[in-house]
Write a structure and sequence with these properties.
The chain is an alpha/beta fold and about 260 residues long. The protein has a single domain (about 1-195, about 225-245), classed as NAD(P)-binding Rossmann-like Domain (Rossmann fold). Helices cover about 40% and strands about 15% of the residues. It is built from 8 helices and 7 strands, in the order βαβαβαβαβαβαααβ. It has helices spanning about 20-30, 50, 65-80, 105-130, 160-180, 195-205, 210-215, 225-235, and strands spanning about 10-15, 35-40, 55-60, 85-90, 140-145, 185-190, 245-250. Strands 3-2-1-4-5-6-7 form a 7-stranded parallel sheet, sandwiched between helices. α3 (about 65-80) runs parallel beside α4 (about 105-130). The chain is globular and about 50 Å long. Bound molecules: nicotinamide-adenine-dinucleotide. The site of nicotinamide-adenine-dinucleotide has 29 residues, from α1, α4 and α6.
Length: about 260
Amino acid sequence: MSGLRQRSRVVAISGGCGDIGQATGRRLLREGFRVILLDRAPQDAISSDLSGNEGLTYLYCDVTSNESVDSAFQKAVEIHGSLDVAIANAGMVANEPFLELDETNLRSTMEVNFFGAFRLAQRAARLMVKQPASEHGVRGKILFTGSWVQDMPFPLGTSYIASKAAVKMMAMVMAQELASEGVRVNLLAPGIVFAGLSKRLHDADPEFRDRVAAAIPLNEMQSAESVADAYAFLCSSDSDYMTGSSLLVDGGATLVKRS
Ligand SMILES: NC(=O)c1ccc[n+]([C@@H]2O[C@H](COP(=O)([O-])OP(=O)(O)OC[C@H]3O[C@@H](n4cnc5c(N)ncnc54)[C@H](O)[C@@H]3O)[C@@H](O)[C@H]2O)c1
């Protein structure tokens, strides 16, 4: 991770107060980044070990609102002057059988997971194309939290899976269009994480963890820290030659365990 330590770079993470957002923020602070956690959740959702860190900034940001995203970006630039990495990570899930799928839930899932990611990514890209390039020609990096289900069906998941599949294709088109502008665009696809959205499913059904772990070839749910580790790589200059990629870190979940 040598590239991470060259200078204090700035990363903004939407959904930054969530479990994966905070784990990623914690890891990137250790790597010497200045970290901006963007969330519609209040600042006191940030754990105490993080909130006192001088490299950390919290900014209110609701990704369903253009005004809110604009305002957060304006403040971020006022505070830090530039933005090296933007991670579109805010997300929600509403699982339901297809026959009963409520169009309102489908729309709100797309609004947060897809349109929210779009809003963040477009603001970041517009800012980054005007920044000076690094020695590898990089003006900025835009990353998305996808999911292992972005490429495969899973029961009850229509809204969530469709939103993540849409994000993946948007990321690829962006990567193609922005390559010549020096903006790298990649996606991290975690598996089933014992944190955040899936942890809440576990809390509602304590057997969920064992049932899910039994379906994962590596036999255990993923930690938020393993997602953060992969983000540390994608944020570093070690990934400068990557664009348009989806980095799958899922314990083999997509292989589908057969025994
Ligand atoms: N937990 C998992 O198993 C898992 C697996 C793969 C991918 N993911 C993805 O990881 C990302 C983070 O999820 P998590 O598991 O940490 O869940 P989480 O609920 O802990 O975090 C999600 C965060 O997004 C924020 N958010 C929701 N709507 C928002 C909005 N309109 N504007 C701004 N912020 C908003 C929430 O306040 C929350 O802090 C999501 O994109 C999710 O789809 C999670």
